[in-house]
Amino acid sequence: DIPTIEDGLYFSSSSDLASSIVSHWPESSRTYTVGSGATPYLVNGDQRTGVPFLIHKIEEQEYVRAWVTNPYDGEVLALDIAFPYSRPEDVEVGESKEKPKYVHDSDKPVYLILHGLNGGSHEEYVKDFVKRRRSEGSTVVVLIARGMMDTYITNGWNVFHGARTGDVDIAARALKRGLDSLAKAKQKPQRQILGGVGYSMGAIILSNYVARSGKNCALDAAVAVSGGLDMRQQLNFRRSMRLWQPMLTFGLREDILIGKYARHYKHRLTSGQFLKMLRVTSISHLDVEAIVNYNSFENLVHYYSEMSAMGDRYPPEFNLFDDDESSAQNATSWGRIANVSIPFAVIQALDDPLVGWRTVGTNDPQALADSGSGNVFLLLTKAGGHVGWPLGANPKKYGWKWMNDAAQSFIFAVDKATRE
Q: Each residue of 142-181: b (16+ CB within 10 Å) or e?
């Protein structure tokens, strides 16, 4: 499936804020080519996705677990907080050293991280981000998706699904209140910036939250890494269903749906539906047999529409449905994506083998960047894979540096531009 859109950075040049952000966003931090350091011998999206996950091993990071409650259903949400250490030499904690002391720098950005499907604060690329940012003096908070990692559903039957954005809002508002109080106590004229960074499924949820919340968004900036804006486009991405999704499906089904929440699904699903859920081989099929049926979505299209930042745009582009002539000319408006009120960057590789390039949602990225108030930035790289972007002749040496530094540098740029 050869992309019909060009790689590059798309932003609204008519927006003074967007132009200022781009001027503060180093070109070196948003360029991924062999000439800029990309691994030269990894030649397709499959390799750029698989190799990093096979070779990158990041040391465990220390977190402080905190809890917030979603008042809408009473569910308790876990936040794993990584504070910077009091001394730089304490970043690497050895047996001979004293236990490090945690601090919080009220002048540095604070990050709210949304992890990937069936992930958590222990995901390798999340630990990579945490390690890099805490060494810079920033506090990083990882929102654990309800019921994931070592957490459980404690109040009712509302297990995780990708269309729920309320948990992000509750976590972001809790952090915002804390940062506002801290700034007031220190008599600072402006509190530190709160930036959201999402990966894969976390990026999909973050994008949807930023679009749906509009002017009520509790974040100051957001970056979505390898997460689609219109997941309806995945319905036709059969290569992903055959090659990559089965690996994710097995772990999610065995560890979460059956391992932890079998009684929930047995309670709501018929015996026939539960049996079908046990036999699924792709995420899309699992979404039908588990998420759609359990949460009473009308069908898979309805679920993906509710889950996507551009899911309310009709008709979708790229002739997705055979019964209509889906095109940019037929789409009457941009929908909720035009309501984005904060600087929001989408970082997507056009060779992503898991979340296809069509999930960008449009064949005209510049028009999308110009939509609404011009707050959407699209950084499309020709190569990179899914949550990959390996660097150098020895990628293990660099970990997930490129994508994590790209996200950091965007939020830094937003901070500088908004303080001018």
A: bbbbbbbbebebeeeebbbbbbbbbbbbbbbebbbeebee
Structure letter (DSSP) for residue 25 = S
Distances 300 to 114, 116, 270, 290, 354 between C-alpha atoms, Å: 23, 20, 18, 11, 18
From CA 85, how far away is CA 99, in angstroms rounded? 10
| Strand partners for 223 | 197, 345
The 10 Å Cβ neighbour count of residue 351 is 23
Give the three-class secondary structure for 8: strand
- Which residues, listed in sequence order, are joined to residue 76 by a DSSP beta bridge? 69
Q: pTM score, two decimals?
A: 0.94
Cβ atoms 127, 59 nearer than 8 A: yes
In sequence order, the 6+-apart residues with CB closer than 8 A to the CB of 247 are: none
In SS3 terms, 145-208 reads as CCCCCCCCCCCCCCCCCCCCCHHHHHHHHHHHHHHHHHHHHCCCCCCCCEEEEEECHHHHHHHH
Q: For residue 78, give the H/E element and its range.
A: strand 76-82
Task: Tell me the per-residue pLDDT of 331-388, one tens digit each, with 9 for 90 and over.
Answer: 558 999 999 999 999 999 999 999 999 999 999 999 999 999 999 999 999 999 999 9
